[in-house]
Amino acid sequence: MKLDTVTPLDGLVYRLVVAVDVEGYSKLDALDQSLVQSRLGEVLDVAAHNAGLDRSQWYRQVRGDGELAVLPADADTASVLAHFTEEVARALRDLRAAGTPLRMRLAMHCGTLTAGQFGLVGHAPIVTCRLLDSKVVRKALALGEGDLVLVISERLFDDVVRTRFHELDPSRFRPTRFSVKGASYAGYVCPGAPRGELVES
């Protein structure tokens, strides 16, 4: 996995932002952290490929235990939400079956942003990261039986999940609200894939 892969953003854009983070990364030693980074990169690459997405076209900011990415303007948000998330859950299930489990949080939000000198600038990446790092989402993963917890913004739930396009199931999401640094955030949490149980392949 490269340290950084960037597709330039031209001006202020309205895009889908996706962020992922691995559970328990900071508690690992350097060797295990390196192995986790490799497994995470493989999970994201395989999931994107199987969902018909090209990660080389994403604007990506790599963090030690995760990634913040902006998808291209032509990305089908409902399809990404349904199929990419499902493929991530499937890849994590396969890792567990192989004896190398990886547990992670995944956050999504749509909004305006641009590229700054030290990374993404705008409300969209802030909201996405706040959702990803919220205590309620961390707790949902820690207490859950699965290896993936998805959290999306209230806007994304209202605009996309409620449509039920790509068999998205609104009943799998539960609302959550929390405050960080004096700002209030609303989102929806989904354990695992947002279309129900994975179909064995």
Automatic annotation (TrEMBL):
It comes from Saccharothrix tamanrassetensis. SUPFAM superfamilies: Nucleotide cyclase. One of its GO terms (biological process) is intracellular signal transduction. Residues 16-132 form the Guanylate cyclase domain. The lineage of its organism: Bacteria, Bacillati, Actinomycetota, Actinomycetes, Pseudonocardiales. It comes from the Bacteria. One of its GO terms (molecular function) is adenylate cyclase activity. InterPro entries: A/G_cyclase, Nucleotide_cyclase. This is Class 3 adenylate cyclase.
